[in-house]
Write a structure and sequence with these properties.
- With 1453 residues, the protein is of the alpha/beta class.
- The protein contains 38 helices and 61 strands.
- Helix 19 (728-737) packs across helix 20 (774-792).
- It is elongated and about 130 Å long.
């Protein structure tokens, strides 16, 4: 609502100057909006009521070219039409073929995606109906309803207040404010204990290399000026462009001071903890530097171009209603509209008399028959929707004029009610309001431009509800008493030649078509003889503004010239919903004057520059003119974003029109209206071109020589990639030039851009023909990528083919672009072929990880400070200083502790084993364990003939037998190795692991139960391994009755007690040596941390084969004397509530479990909490529930577990985690006393650079990390640089090194790799404390301390697995420098291909990594070990050996 009514006002200069001052004050925020309006109305009140006139604007001027630009403004539509033969340009096809020929030499080295058969079969021929290749055309889905608005008082007395409030800045954009949420007070902040984080380093064999694994942390983009990422909002006048605190650009009128204040208020109140880096290094993405050689516009500034004067013909009716009344009464028999049925026979002829009388009836009914006399439902000025099918123009026309007569506003709506008016690029819908005066003036301008005369016949193929079809076929035709022959879309599908036949039959003077109608006629014309088009004086091409329409026009002329068609008859026009008709080629009688042509360099166009291309024939765009500016209008081209400044003569810009005959607003959207309908173009000096507002047309183009308007694209189809502009239509044309007919449907291609990692990325989606094979389609896709790369020099991010007829359609058959894009982004497009090329088109990845300045040996060490930074080190309580009555301390060996307990407390129960029903299956007292251990020792010495120091493999299910066998080995002086028994249902995969551990550990004998003994010798076992190679197998169900002569006592506490074998997440089998002194120290450390005494009961639901699980199951009870309630995790599969019921029943205060147990309970008992409560399940006595794992704490799982069982009394602070690894089986463990386990949030961008920066919860790029419990007594930890082995400061991420009495003493391998041994188990710092011997854990982490805990307080172990990923069930590994992501799909196989772009996008956005291969597999394919950790190396081997049976494998090029 611009100063439309100021048009024609002769305001004195001083008034104008005063107005400008007011504007300035308002934009600076010095006066309020209200004050501004008051002063303003005073100033111009005297000059107001004068009817608008347009003629005294600007002298006609020389004209010139214009440019599109990088911000595709948010309120623009994008046409969602189908694209078809309009794109056929022989030159272009040749160019594409030439470009591809260049590529021919370089054979594609891309592996084809592999797909499971079931996926290929589903697109079979039977399920297929051919889609109409036709498809609507360019604008078909962006349905525009020009709702004809009627300001009732348009004749004069304008309501001042209303008028002024509208005339002023339609909207003030308000600043968006964001307040950071404060999390729970500072109490918790101070209670946080020392923290440390760990990340497993994958290649454990080499000195752990951190560099390769930290690069995936996400980074904030600072919007660099001038890059494609800095989309600035347009600046108008003095409204300074500001940014709110969160970086949203606002064209705001708030003065800078207020803005400053707002920004200060937004800063988080709580400062980050002191010793973590607060340096503001925001990691920048690479910004595309502009090419120094890129073409720049060099021409003079263009001048606004004025159309001829709109001559008022005396007998023009004063309004459309008056015209209708005149013709309805003077010549009621004259035909107004003839409609056709699907056979092409006239269905109905509407005469002017009938149109007049019926419209009057409609108007009467609207006003009098709805509601009551007192309360009419519809009043003048209300909006009325017209919902008519496309094949019924007569009823629609009657209704339209009925509305005009009733003074209500008609709103034509497409029949599928989901899409009305006009859709924008993002699928939202806008209504353009057109005033009555604009409507009438537009009809007059068209009548003058097209030279319409009374009773002419016009054939209309277009949609009569909007745009050109409405303007010519419904409105202007009535003004001139013309006869319209309406051809419905349904008839065109049956008979594409119907419109040409009607032109001949009715000797029509004018036809309104789109280029697709011309193309269809070309395809079908062969069988027609008696066609004569000589009657045509004007063939209006509605989408002539599409640069690719020229080929249709040329081809049509070539074929039909012989049938009487003259070249000068073809009249392309340019129009837009906002500006109505922008330009139209006039019909001339002079056939000698050829139409305007421009052959432009595609490369120049991407920079918005016009370069007539002569030498490089490959990438050119040939455009035709769309004629001259409309009568009574002024046209210019302005820079598409920022200030609407006039373009230079050789620059592409957005065309703007100043005329009475344009839309006035977007209905109900004042802000968007201001940016589009109230634009004041300025010259380079800043002077406005005209005092009247211009309307942006949404068309990109320039005004060429002779005042001809050229259009090269639409704002909607504009994609700005790395600062260069590409038009969707041009990309479509190139794709179609790659011989598509065999593989895809011509008109069924959608091209759009999606924003990934702060830049637009091009996506192409096409419908694949059902008869094309997988290989063909893949070949075609690869060639399309090459062609687009050669011709447009731009990479395509994703090319997807979908089955025929599956893309969403617009009412007239085109492709619905915004819906297609929405489906793509949601992952519900279900393509049958996907090719992604992130490697080539994502060029703005962050700079490589920067090296942090090292703390060098030269720095002065003062206590714990290194050059001003505190060294990251921490330790648990000192074992030597703790005074407690620990009787077991006086014994060096566990075997002695057991003998002492058997003598002093023989009947004290140490172990209770539960079965799946929760009843006691077995129990063991001190003396029972001692006696059975003695018998096993005899058996080993007599039957096994073993010497002390021999290795014995214990292959037992979780239970009591395993414990007795272990102590039996100690009594006999043998070294036990616990091995998980093979799974009876899965011998083929589990038995080889057993065999491998037995061989690698050099076991001299194997002890087991009778049942497993049979299994090991069974036929199935023989098929999996060589059973004859087993060492002697002893069956402990049959024990000798006698006692050994004496119990073995080791000579030295440093001799081997047992071997601990485990498969790490990297798939490596690693056995570590535990000596007697380490075993005793380990038990003592756990006893002190968990306060274990003989009177205590502990529930253990863990696998007893390695690490802390084994120690808790077999060793701790003997050392501390407490009773262990043993629950085998496998029993939970039949009874998920077993563990929790046992904890409740035995009133246990401390319990240990694994992640897989926790997951089983969360999934299996989620819906049963009420029934469990009824069964008396009570977890309120639990004070510690520790998850035992050698990995980063799984926050989501522990939190959902805590939430789920909170109702059953479980205190959230009770749930915590432990952390151990191969070199030290337990480093941290949340004991009984001590602060709650805490979670911190670290900045992922900082982590990429090995820095730890704590942020508020909910910050962007934050990664939540949970502590791994308190550091165990006797354990010291330091964070070291894995490359230089120097100590690191507090805020650095480094490798966790550990020193403690219970460190393992080394790896046990056959290969005896000594270098690895010394590196992992006996490393020393390169400077600082160079005496202490440390073990390297291979995990990355950091330490964090607070005011409450000093340097020997609790320790957090924060784990960060080196390759993290955020999809529900997935695993990641690298392969030949490619990142491979394996995703389990829990859904139908049709969705497999949707995951490829989704996974690629999320990894790019979150971690700035390009995914090389995406593998979609069935649920359960990713191998998981007993601890619930993903076995990435097994997965990798399975992938490389092609054993995964994937649903789909996509290789991103």
């Amino acid at each position: 609502m611009a100063d439309r009514s100021l048009e024609g006002m002769a305001l004195p200069l001083e008034v104008r100057a005063r107005l400008a001052e007011l504007e300035l004050e308002l934009s600076e925020g010095d006066i309020t909006q209200k004050g501004y309006e008051k002063k303003r109305s005073k100033l111009i009140g005297a000059y107001l009521p004068q009817p608008p006139r347009v003629d005294q604007a600007l002298p006609p001027e020389r004209r010139a070219p214009i440019t599109p630009s990088s911000a595709s403004r948010y309120h623009r539509r994008r046409s969602s039409g189908s694209r078809d033969e309009r794109y056929r340009s022989d030159v272009h096809t040749e160019a594409v073929q030439a470009a591809l020929a260049k590529h021919k030499e370089r054979k594609m080295a891309v592996p084809m995606p592999s797909k499971r058969r079931s996926l290929v079969v589903q697109t079979s021929m039977d399920a297929y109906t051919p889609p109409d290749t036709s498809s609507g055309s360019d604008d078909e889905g962006s349905v525009q309803g020009d709702s004809q608005g009627t300001p009732t008082s348009s004749q004069g007395s304008i309501n001042m207040e209303h008028w002024i409030s509208q005339a002023i800045h339609g909207s003030t954009t308000s600043t968006t404010s964001s307040s950071s949420t404060q999390s729970g007070g500072s109490g918790t902040a101070h209670r946080l204990a020392d923290v440390m984080a760990q990340t497993h380093i994958e290649n454990h064999s080499a000195p752990p290399d951190v560099t390769t694994y930290t690069s995936e942390h996400a980074i904030q983009v600072e919007r660099p000026q001038g890059s494609a990422t800095s989309r600035t909002a347009p600046k108008y006048g003095n409204a300074e462009l500001m940014e709110t605190g969160d970086g949203v650009p606002v064209s705001s009128r708030v003065s800078a001071k207020i803005q400053q204040l707002v920004n200060t208020l937004k800063r988080p109140k709580r400062p980050p903890l002191r010793e973590f880096f607060v340096d503001d290094f925001e990691e920048l993405l690479e910004v595309q530097q502009p090419d120094p050689n890129q073409p720049k516009p060099e021409g003079a500034q263009m001048l606004a171009m004025r159309g001829e004067q709109l001559g008022v013909v005396t007998n023009w009716p004063p309004s459309l209603e008056a015209a209708l009344q005149r013709w309805g009464t003077i010549s009621p028999k004259a035909p107004c509209l003839t409609t056709m049925d699907t056979n092409g026979k006239p269905l109905y002829i509407l005469t002017y008399g009938k149109l007049w009388t019926r419209s009057m009836k409609v108007a009467y009914n609207i006003l009098h028959k709805l509601g009551t006399k007192q309360e009419p439902m519809v009043r003048p000025g209300d909006r009325v929707a017209l919902v008519f099918p496309n094949n019924d123009p007569a009823a629609s026309m009657v209704a339209f004029y009925g509305c005009l007569l009733a003074e209500v506003v008609p709103v034509p709506i497409e029949v599928p009610l989901t899409r009305k008016y006009k859709t924008c690029k993002d699928g939202s819908v806008l209504g353009v309001t057109v005033t009555r005066i604009a409507l009438l003036t537009h009809c007059q301008a068209l009548t003058q431009a097209c030279g319409y005369t009374e009773a002419e016949t016009i054939v209309n193929v277009l949609d009569f509800k909007k745009d050109v079809g409405l303007w010519h076929g419904i409105l202007t035709s009535v003004m001139n008493m013309m006869h319209v022959i309406s051809i419905p879309y349904s008839l065109m599908k049956v008979n594409p030649l119907s419109w040409i036949q009607k032109v001949c039959q009715y000797k029509a003077k004018v036809a309104c078509v789109k280029s697709r109608d011309m193309h269809w006629a070309l395809v079908a014309h062969r069988d027609q003889r008696d066609i004569n088009l000589s009657s045509l004086r004007m063939l209006i091409v509605a989408d002539g503004a599409n640069p690719w329409s020229i080929s249709s026009c040329d081809a049509f002329l070539n074929v039909f010239q012989s049938k009487g068609l003259r070249q000068e008859v073809i009249c392309p026009c340019a129009s837009s919903p906002e500006a109505l008709t922008v330009a139209i080629r006039r019909p001339t009688d002079d056939s000698n004057q050829p139409p305007g042509r421009g052959i432009l360099s595609m490369h120049g166009l991407t920079y918005g520059v016009i370069r007539v291309d002569s030498e490089e024939k490959l990438s050119v765009l040939t455009v035709q003119d769309v004629g001259l500016v409309m009568p009574g209008a002024i046209t210019c081209s302005v820079k598409p974003d920022g200030v609407p400044q006039l373009c230079r003569t050789d620059e592409i810009g957005e065309l703007c029109v100043c005329a009475v005959a344009t839309g006035t607003s977007y209905y109900g959207l004042s802000g968007m209206t201001k940016n589009t309908f109230e634009v004041f173009p300025v010259t380079s000096s800043g002077a406005p071109v005209s005092e009247y507002p211009f309307v942006r047309t949404g068309l990109l183009g320039f005004v060429g020589p002779g005042g001809l308007v050229f259009v090269v694209g639409k704002m909607d189809g504009l994609m700005v990639v790395s600062g260069r502009r590409h038009n969707a239509d041009d990309i479509v044309a190139t794709a179609l030039a790659v011989e598509p007919m065999k593989f895809v449907y011509r008109g069924r291609i959608a091209v759009f851009s999606v924003t990934v990692l702060h830049d637009e990325r091009i996506v192409i989606v096409a419908e694949q023909r059902p008869d094309s094979t997988e290989e063909d389609s893949f070949q075609w896709m690869s060639r399309v990528l090459q062609a687009i790369d050669s011709i447009h020099q731009v990479g395509v991010y994703c090319l997807a083919l979908v089955p025929a007829n599956t893309l969403p359609k617009t009412p007239l058959g085109g492709i619905h672009l915004s819906e297609t894009k929405q489906l793509f982004l949601e992952g519900s497009l279900h393509p049958c072929n996907v090719l992604m090329c992130p490697h080539t088109c994502v060029t703005n990845l962050p700079k490589p990880r920067q090296k942090q300045p090292e703390i060098g040996p030269a720095s002065v060490m003062v206590g714990n400070l290194v050059s001003g930074k505190r060294i990251a080190q921490a330790s648990g309580r000192d074992l030597g200083q703790i005074e407690d009555n620990d009787q077991a301390r006086k014994f060096l060996f566990l075997s002695e502790v057991l003998q002492w307990r058997a003598q002093t407390t023989p009947d004290h129960v140490l172990y209770t084993l539960l079965n799946c029903r929760g009843t006691i299956a077995n129990s063991l007292t001190c003396v029972q364990l001692h006696k059975r251990a003695e018998k096993i020792a005899v058996m080993l010495m007599e039957r096994g003939r073993l010497q002390d120091g021999d290795h014995v493999a214990l292959v037992y299910p979780p239970g009591i037998d395993l414990i007795t066998a272990f102590y039996g080995c100690l009594y006999a002086g043998c070294v036990p190795i616990t091995v998980r028994p093979p799974h009876p249902q899965n011998i083929a995969t589990t038995l080889p692991t057993v065999k491998m551990i037995v061989e690698v550990s050099r076991s001299a004998c194997l002890m087991t139960t009778q049942l497993i003994c049979k299994l090991l010798r069974s036929r199935e076992a023989a098929a999996a391994v060589d059973v004859r190679a087993w060492p002697p197998i002893l069956d402990t169900d049959d024990l000798p009755k006698k006692r050994p002569a004496q119990i073995y006592k080791p000579s030295n506490p440093d001799t081997l007690a047992y071997l601990d074998f485990s498969v790490s997440t990297t798939g490596m089998l690693a056995g570590v040596k535990m000596c007697h002194s380490a075993t005793s120290a380990f038990c003592r450390s756990i006893k002190l941390q968990c306060e274990l005494y003989p009177s205590r009961e502990v529930a253990i639901c863990l696998d007893p084969y390695c690490g802390l699980g084994f120690v808790l199951w077999c060793l701790c009870s003997v050392y501390s004397g407490h009773q262990s309630i043993l629950i085998p995790p496998s029993e939970l599969e039949t009874n998920p509530a077993l563990w929790l019921l046992a904890v409740s029943q035995y009133k246990v205060r401390d319990t240990f479990c694994s992640y897989s147990v926790m997951e089983l309970c969360t999934k299996g008992l989620g819906s049963q909490t009420e029934s469990l409560k009824a069964r008396g399940l009570d977890l309120s006595r639990v004070r510690t529930c520790v998850v035992v794992a050698e990995e980063r704490p799984r926050i989501a799982l522990t939190q959902s577990f805590s939430k789920l069982f909170k109702d059953l009394g479980l205190h959230p602070r009770a749930v915590s985690t432990s952390f151990g690894c191969r070199v030290n089986l337990a480093i941290c463990l949340q004991g009984t006393s001590g602060p709650d386990p805490t979670t911190v949030y670290v900045d992922m961008r900082a982590l990429r650079h090995d820095r730890v920066r704590l942020v508020e919860r909910g910050s962007p790029h934050s990664l939540p990390l949970m502590e791994s419990g308190k550091i165990l007594p006797g354990v010291r930890i330091i964070i070291a640089n894995p490359e230089t082995k120097g100590p690191l400061g507090d805020s650095h991420l480094g490798e966790i090194w550990v020193h403690s009495a219970h460190n393992a003493s080394g790896y046990f391998t056959i290969y005896g790799d000594e270098s690895l041994q010394s590196d992992h188990f006996s490393s020393r710092l390169s400077f600082g404390d160079t005496q202490t011997v440390w073990a390297r854990t291979g995990y990355l982490g950091f330490l964090r301390r607070t005011e409450l805990t000093d340097a020997n307080g609790g320790g957090h172990a924060e784990g960060r697995k080196a390759r993290r990923f955020s999809l529900s069930s997935s695993a990641v590994f690298t392969w030949t420098n490619l990142l491979v992501v394996v995703v389990e799909l829990d859904g139908s196989e049709q969705e497999a291909l949707d995951l490829v772009p989704l996974v690629t996008n999320v990894v790019l956005e979150e971690h700035y990594l390009v995914v090389g291969v995406v593998v979609v597999v069935d649920v359960g394919v990713i191998p998981i070990n007993s601890r619930g950790e993903k076995q990435r190396m097994h997965l990798r081997d399975g992938f490389l050996a092609d054993q995964l049976d994937p649903i789909y494998v996509a290789y991103n090029m």
